[in-house]
Write a sequence for this structure.
């Protein structure tokens, strides 16, 4: 009988403890009213920008071109080079790209950027002045600016595929802006 009474007491205590409540605290200070934002659509509109320019790499520009830009911390920059024309369509390759010539000669198209500037450049293990004009003159590049959170959310996208990136950010050829190169 003592065991039943003990078990009943323990059950009542277990059921009663979670329902205990203390006194309500004082009212907090009133907050400031914010400005109501616009109602959004189903998706998030992200300012993804795509720029295009035609560049010539030469000794005069140290085989590099650049431009000012403004990136927030964590944002990303992708640079593509028109590698070829296939059935009148551009074939874009994400930089860096390396070309292997005979006898161990290599040429690399590459880029670098900060939050205020980017540049696209050529490097080689030979004198770039000896390079044929087809590799240096009138090279079309495209630059895509992507917010950092956007890349993290879409990490499974093949960023080396320019068309996939354009589809991802909801842009088409009409949305490409001219690139101001220095």
């Amino acid at each position: 009988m003592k065991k039943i009474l003990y078990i009943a007491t323990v059950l009542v205590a277990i059921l009663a403890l979670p329902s205990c409540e203390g006194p309500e605290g004082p009212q907090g200070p009133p907050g400031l009213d914010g400005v109501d934002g616009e109602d959004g659509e189903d998706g998030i509109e992200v300012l993804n920008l795509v720029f295009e320019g035609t560049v010539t790499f030469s000794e005069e520009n140290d085989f590099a071109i650049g431009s000012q830009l403004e990136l927030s911390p964590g944002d990303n920059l992708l640079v593509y080079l028109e590698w070829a024309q296939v059935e009148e369509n551009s074939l874009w390759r994400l930089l860096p790209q390396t070309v292997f010539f005979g006898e161990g000669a290599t040429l690399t198209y590459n880029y670098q950027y900060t939050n205020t500037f980017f540049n696209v450049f050529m490097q080689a293990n030979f004198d770039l002045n000896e390079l044929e004009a087809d590799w240096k003159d009138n090279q079309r590049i495209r630059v895509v600016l992507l917010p950092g959170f956007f890349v993290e959310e879409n990490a499974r996208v093949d960023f080396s595929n320019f068309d996939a990136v354009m589809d991802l950010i909801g842009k088409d050829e009409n949305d490409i802006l001219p690139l101001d190169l220095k």
Notes: The chain has three helices and nine strands. Helices lie at 2-16, 148-153, 162-169. The radius of gyration is 30 Å. The chain has one domain: 49-178.
